Amino acid sequence: MASSVQQQPAHSGSSSDAEQRYAMYDEKKRKRMISNRESAKRSRLRKQQHVEELCSQRALLQNEQSVCKQQIDSLCQGLALLSTENDVLRAQCAELADRLQSMNSLLHLWAEVNETVVEDIHEIPDVLLEPWQLPCPTQPIVASADMFPF
């Protein structure tokens, strides 16, 4: 009987060891579950923050795209106007070249009638097109230091 009494405490001791091991295992498992939940929660928060950043970036890019479209439309309208104006100017240039040729022909006919030698006028200088070539010499403005009271 004494041996069976000793066995029971040994048996009860081993069951308490097993219970302690299970308790430690359960505690580790519980801590791991809590840690995993917190990690998943942080991951969801990071994902949500990333999605919000992407949404705000999308809105910014859409605004930028809208501005670019407006600029492109404006530039296309300007290009169309300039192209039209360029066509008009080319037509005027061709018309003026024809008129110059006609005038040169008339000048030659007039010279033949009057028996004088006339050279062709190849280009008529235009002061408005070349403002740096003034038709009259510039006069320097003379001023003395005593002219101004300050």
UniProtKB/TrEMBL annotation:
Q: Report the InterPro entries cross-referenced here.
A: bZIP, bZIP_plant_GBF1, bZIP_sf
Q: Which UniProt keywords apply?
A: DNA-binding, Nucleus, Transcription, Transcription regulation
Tell me, in one coarse class, where this protein mainly resides: nucleus
Which GO MF terms does the UniProt record name?
DNA-binding transcription factor activity; protein heterodimerization activity; transcription cis-regulatory region binding
UniProt-annotated stretches for the region Disordered: 1-46
Compositionally biased spans, kind Basic and acidic residues? 18-28
Question: What are the BP-aspect GO terms?
Answer: positive regulation of DNA-templated transcription
Please tell me the species this chain comes from: Cuscuta epithymum
Q: Where in the cell is it found?
A: Nucleus
- BZIP domain location: 26-89
* Pfam (any one): bZIP_1
What is the protein name stated in its UniProt record? BZIP domain-containing protein
Q: Which GO terms describe its cellular component?
A: nucleus
Composition bias type Polar residues, residue spans: 1-17
